[in-house]
From TrEMBL:
Record protein name field: DDHD1 Phospholipase
Lineage, highest ranks first: Eukaryota, Metazoa, Chordata, Craniata, Vertebrata
Signal sequence region: none
SMART domains in alphabetical order: DDHD
Comp. bias intervals (Low complexity): 562-581
Amino acid sequence: SGASLRYSTGTGGEGSEGEGAGLGSSDSGGSGFSLAATALPERRRPGGGRPRYEVVRELGAEEVRWFYREDRKTWKPFIGYDSLRIELAFRALGSGGGGAGEPAAVEPVCVRSGLYEVDVASAESYPVYWNQTEKIPVMRGQWFIDGTWQPLEEEESNLIEQEHLNRFKGQQLQESFDMEISKPVDGKEAIHSLKLSRNHVDWHSVDEVYLYSDATTSKIARTVTQKLGFSKASSSGTRLHRGYVEEATLEDKPPQTSHIVFVVHGIGQKMDQGRIIKNTAMMRDTARKVEEKYFSNLATHVEFLPVEWRSKLTLDGDTVDSITPDKVRGLRDMLNSSAMDIMYYTSPLYRDELVKGLQQELNRLYSLFCSRNPEFEEKGGKVSIVSHSLGCVITYDIMTGWNPVRLYEQLLQKEEEEELEERWMSYEEQRLLEELYITKQRLREIEERLHELKASTISKPPVLKFKVENFFCMGSPLAVFLALRGIRPGTSGSQDHILPRTICNRLLNIFHPTDPVAYRLEPLILKHYSNISPVQIHWYNTANPLPYEHMKPSFLNPSKEPTSAPDTESASAAPSPTTSPVMVRRHYGESITNIGKASILGAASIGKGLGGMLFSRFGRSSATPQTMETGKDGPEGDEKKGTTVGTPPLPHSSSGFLEPTVELEHRIDFELREGLVESRYWSAVTSHTAYWSSLDIALFLLTFMYKQDQEETDKSNLDTL
């Protein structure tokens, strides 16, 4: 009897021995509840069933389960940790602790990994970090439908619960509460019944409760089946269960967030202001599935937060709308709400407003997150950014502090210097221009000294309040913006050429092969990477995939063997768009021998647009998979330093094409694999917005964000062994 009484909670003097269970509940109000640190009792359902002879009493806080419903879909249960805290807040609200008959003031309950709060009084949930017009309804579940474990509507559930307690409170349950094997109720008469508005409930025993619909069609069907010999319950009844299938425990808690990801939208947000919230939710849900499958052994957690920066901007007000003609207005409005953002960003008048809008929103979200999670910074929490489309360019400019006004001033200064050198002028004009030049130089020096003096006395706050660990670009036109700003390939192979590691530890450029807005970044660092294919992102379900850092480069246009041309001809031919020097053969088994093809391909990738897209995307064969050759070009080939049979030594190229001995420190361009039955023309339309729900991308993102945690876990396991 001691084991059975542990489910009793001391209400009305019955079974007071059960208070040691850790949760106490009282009559209807629930006053005087306490949440102890001790472990809560586990209900042995559905496996072993409830203990026999359990006393019917009010449901404990651990037996009630709270639910939420998004987008008018089915009710979803909160995890035990959240449900337990909501229920305790609900009971505190009902206890009337406010005095003078007023309800107690209960603070909102933080749920769903801290992304949402629940207002128990209004039975609504709302997001913490972003605005959402539609509130999310929440519901308290006490009675549940057999099989689906969906809760009955709260009004009906309360009536059934009240009737159940009035009729059976204090009685003992003689039958085992086994969910899998329940005795049939054929031949049993209902010992109690309750009429509801559209249904009625029959109790065949204390723990055998059935719900019946009172609709005319249901009554007719019930009459027919009963005349055929079937029982009322088995023919049309729905079995109900009191208390949820799982007991809520404080141990059922989400893992601690060690990495936050800000998801930045691109153009088109004005057209659908909630789009980035939905897209981030898709990415978050997809990442959860990947975490459960591949990273469940880690005690940390990655959280995705949407950054909606467009709706707060005023820009030109409604000036552009007022000058828009009425014909084909729908198409024009769509262009004004999407492509117009690019024009705003290239405008010197509105560019700063866009930059400040995103910068302030990033800092606001980070400060809010740290205020609600004070241990995040103390424990070395990391921040990454995932940007899409134009958002990549704005995020890059915020991190690097790029300013077109400063660039324009430098160009003007350069033009003045060239004018002084080249133009013929009289002695007096030359003397005045020289004085003007010297005065401007002196003015700049004074401004710089004044700026340094201010900087020494007043420390300027950083542009962003956090260091960016990883910057993921998706469907990004960043490369073409950088090319138009004068960025040209360098010689180092370092990411610092376009984004210093002191600002961002790792830059990764993700794109679909047919995305017309996406451009490659690697050829802006080393020119010969225009003929090296991007790294292929692994399929989500690939078994034992090769780590990305171990994948060897493969070439877009593998050339024929150089032995077909005479050695002297190959060595003496001057580099040109059609003839090119033979490159050093690498251990991955292919050599570049045709710079002309590579140059054409590189030009096509830089000058895409519609024609360039058709040329470079649809004209070439499907993406080359990452291949590795072993054997004839093994590590021994590297030691020979670039001489193979029939291949002359590499001459120095005056065309600017770099020696392939220079490689990138880390690969930057990563390409999604095309589907086997995917139409390239159709995917060119859909691919730019297809990143959010991709399991392949979710796995890719988490692989890099969990990389250090995974390495530390593996190291600790090895140390233990």
